[in-house]
Amino acid sequence: MDRPFGVGTPEQYARLKAANFPAEGGPAVLEVEVPVNIIAVLESDPDARDSMDSGDTLFDPSVGIRELLTAWPTLGKRIIRL
Fold first, then answer.
1. Residues with Cβ < 8 Å from 80, sequence gap 6 or more?
2. What is the pLDDT of residues 26-56, one digit of tens each?
3. Alpha-carbon distance 8 to 52, whole Å?
4. What's the pLDDT band for 2 if we cut at 50, 70, 90?
5. Closest CA to 81 of 6, 14, 16
6. Residue 26 phi, psi (nearest 5)
């Protein structure tokens, strides 16, 4: 990724998050290929867009989650265990 990350790199964030949940199997990064039409939904919302600018993409009930869940079975995914 070529964006800045306000929460550290995905690998750093995964390790910090895993430290808070030691019984869950260790750190991992889930990469998901999100289609541009779903990203456009987030970019149309000022709060979601600001979050994306910080390097943290959030889908919530009011913005984007319905579209993401609908597309989820067909999206490309990769799990990177650290």
1. 28, 29, 30, 31
2. 999 999 999 999 999 999 998 888 878 776 7
3. 14
4. low
5. 14
6. 95, 175
Each residue's pLDDT tens digit, 55-70: 678 888 989 999 999 9
Is 13 within 8 Å of 62 (Cβ atoms)?
no
Q: What are the C-alpha distances in Å from 72 to residues 18, 25, 33, 34, 75? A: 24, 23, 10, 9, 5
Residues 6+ away with beta carbon under 8 Å from 11: 27, 29, 82
10 Å CB burial of residue 11 (0-12, 13-18, 19+) is middle
Residues 6 or more apart in contact with residue 42 via CB below 8 angstroms: 48, 49, 52, 57, 59, 63, 64
- Give me the torsion for CA of 33, 28, 6, 76, rounded to 10°: 0
